[in-house]
């Protein structure tokens, strides 16, 4: 049986919020068949920004990254589905929005490396999804629910013959 309940952390960054793209980005993930299990409209403070981007601490762009991510509200989310972490990365597109393929979120809406609209956990960094979810959400902020459409997304959940 396929594991349908992998969870991943996703965030609409301040540029996406300011440009009114929360709805479009959520729609992309919903229509792919992923299920939202948590969502929080919030501001990231310095401390959380440092923790979230700890892997980039030594990079020359770190200070700019922290000041960007704390510059306005973000929409933090947890999404669930089969292979969810990698699936979200594919929907996001390449880090530099100018290189991101048309059809991806960054490719369709972005034009910049820093202002690239969306964060998603790195599927090549084992456990990054669980770490980031725990950093942003308490367990009781995540909702277990059955999305009826899942049986029409995943064939192995279907009850037809
Ligand atoms: P991603 O957001 O695709 O996971 P990442 O984790 O390598 O990319 O980097 C985190 C963010 O930092 C990225 O969304 C944009 C910014 N960034 C990455 N590389 C950069 C660079 N060389 N110069 C400036 N900003 C950069
Ligand atoms: Mg990353």
TL;DR of this structure?
The chain is an alpha+beta fold and about 160 residues long.
List the helices and strands and how they pair.
Elements: E1 6-12, H1 14-18, H2 22-32, E2 35-42, H3 46-52, H4 62-69, E3 74-81, H5 84-92, H6 105-109, E4 118-120, H7 128-136, H8 150-153
Antiparallel strand pairs: 1-3, 1-4, 2-3
Name a few traits of the molecule.
161 residues, alpha+beta, Alpha-Beta Plaits, four-stranded antiparallel β-sheet, 8 helices, binds 2'-deoxyadenosine-5'-diphosphate, binds magnesium ion, transferase, Nucleoside diphosphate kinase, metal ion binding, nucleotide metabolism, cytoplasm
Describe it.
It catalyses: a 2'-deoxyribonucleoside 5'-diphosphate + ATP = a 2'-deoxyribonucleoside 5'-triphosphate + ADP; a ribonucleoside 5'-diphosphate + ATP = a ribonucleoside 5'-triphosphate + ADP. This protein is α+β, with helices and mostly antiparallel strands and 161 residues long. The chain has a domain at 5-83 and 124-140: Nucleoside diphosphate kinase-like domain (Alpha-Beta Plaits, 2-Layer Sandwich). It has helices at residues 14-18, 22-32, 46-52, 62-69, 84-92, 105-109, 128-136, 150-153, and strands at 6-12, 35-42, 74-81, 118-120. The protein has a 4-stranded antiparallel sheet with strand order 2-3-1-4. It is globular, with a radius of gyration of 16 Å. It starts with 5 loop residues before the first strand and ends in an 8-residue tail after the last helix. The model has no long low-confidence stretch (mean pLDDT 97). The structure holds 2'-deoxyadenosine-5'-diphosphate and magnesium ion (MG). Residues 56, 61, 65, 95, 113-114, 116, 119, 122 line the site of 2'-deoxyadenosine-5'-diphosphate.
């Amino acid at each position: 049986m396929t594991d349908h309940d992998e969870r991943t952390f996703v965030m609409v960054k301040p540029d996406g919020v300011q440009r009114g793209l929360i709805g479009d980005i959520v729609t992309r993930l919903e229509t792919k068949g992923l299920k939202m299990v948590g969502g929080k409209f919030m501001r990231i403070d310095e401390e959380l920004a440092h923790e979230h981007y700890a892997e980039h601490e030594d990079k020359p762009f770190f200070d700019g990254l922290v000041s960007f991510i704390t510059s306005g509200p973000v929409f933090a989310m947890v999404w669930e589905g089969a292979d969810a972490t990698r699936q979200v990365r594919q929907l996001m597109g390449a880090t530099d929005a100018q290189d991101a393929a048309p059809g991806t979120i960054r490719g369709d809406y972005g034009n910049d490396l820093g202002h690239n609209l969306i964060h998603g956990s790195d599927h090549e960094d084992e456990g990054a999804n669980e770490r980031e979810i725990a950093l942003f959400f308490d367990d009781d902020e995540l909702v277990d629910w059955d999305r009826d459409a899942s049986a029409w997304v995943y064939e192995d959940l279907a009850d037809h013959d």
